[in-house]
Amino acid sequence: MTDRTEVNAMPTRRTFRGGAVLAVLATVNFMAIINISIVNVALPAMQTALGTDLAGLQWVINAFAICLSALTLTGGALGDRYGRKRIFLLGVALFIAGSVACGLADGLATLIVGRVVQGLGAAMLIPGSLSILAQTFTDPAERARRIGVWAAVSAVGLAAGPVIGGVLIDAYGWPAIFWVGVPIGVLGFVGVVLVVPESSDPAHTSLDPVGQLLGVAALAALSYGLIRLGETGLSDPLTSGTLAVSILLLVVFVIVEWRSPAPMLPVRMFADRHFMVMNAASAALGFAPYAIYAFLSLFMQQVQDLSATEAGLAFLPMAAATGVVAPYAGRLTGRYGPKPALIAGYAMSTVGVSALVFLDADTPYWIAGPMYLLIGLGIGLSMTPTTTAAVTAVPRERSGIAAATVNTTRQTGMALGVAMLGAIVAAADDFQTGLHAAALVAGVVSLLALVLILATASPRPTG
What we know:
Blueprint: H1 2-37, H2 43-50, H3 54-82, H4 84-104, H5 108-136, H6 140-172, H7 176-179, H8 181-195, H9 209-232, H10 237-259, H11 273-302, H12 308-314, H13 316-336, H14 339-354, H15 365-392, H16 399-427, H17 431-454
Helix pairs in contact: 1-5, 1-6, 1-8, 3-4, 3-5, 3-9, 3-16, 4-5, 4-8, 5-6, 5-16, 6-12, 6-13, 6-15, 9-10, 9-16, 11-14, 11-15, 11-16, 11-17, 13-15, 14-15, 14-17, 15-16, 16-17
């Protein structure tokens, strides 16, 4: 009787431990993810308070996005090599420090520095959370379900950011959107210390400072060139020269990584078609529905004359749809593989983003709301299967770098989307025309990702 009780208790203790790990990681990840979108609804208030232009606002977004996308690979490699829990905790501490700096900022430069520190922290904790989950849950079906919950919380954070931000801005001012993450980060830090186990795979990881510097320089130069493009046009020597340098840096980066015996980004992994397609799709997800957030929020407040709270509440269908469907996307992926959810998700994103071309100053909400709903459904259905398919395509010991790569491509897509779509908006005669053109470009990018997914079979689990 005693033996039976002990045997039966073991799965319960493991289940409780796994649930606690998932809860802590999802909470901390929520804190980081929400900062991707919560800033968007604050952009008009920041513009007024800091006296900046659209280019300055783009850098408030991209200072975070560039650090996150360019350093996520290093963050994942550091965790795999020196301990996933240790690096995760360092990321949480940096993120809290960056949030405090942003909350205290009295000028654009200080705010951008704070966003850089936030991005450094997020680059450690976001891939770290996925890698810890992959190590904690070894069964593929259970891993997919757990990642589904993680992705649901992340997706809700992305979609709910404007809702929470709008209320905070109207009540306490734009710095409040950064202060709200500080207590969450502190609680998360304590939770990680108490319940998350340490793990590492030093034999399968390497650091690549040359590749890291090239990656950061290439992405920063490309973003700078694209942001200037909307202001000056391609005839400006600095703009065209920066874009040319960025392309050259990207080429050199790929060559260096290909030839390096211990690359930061194992580019040979992209020889696997499934892995390549999932990363391309992840980049499109960042470029289209993620990046369009910023300009849609500006449109609501500057063209449709909504308050920050009203603009935030207008995103509620998106937040609700994302939160409801993301867990089911994980279950669907675990049962049928990633392709059905991928097709549905990217199709909805394509239609929802493209439909924004019909928005104008007088568009009633009963027409605009379904557009936001489709975008939310698309994000919720896409995140889990995109991540799961990319991680599944490589051996389990490479889970850290695979998770980091798929997050890197999504954040890179968002950084480039903010820069390129912002250039399109800035070059237009008015904001409404610019938003329509940006939505059309974003819709085409999302459609191309859907075509790639349709043409590619689901990956078979490796390792």
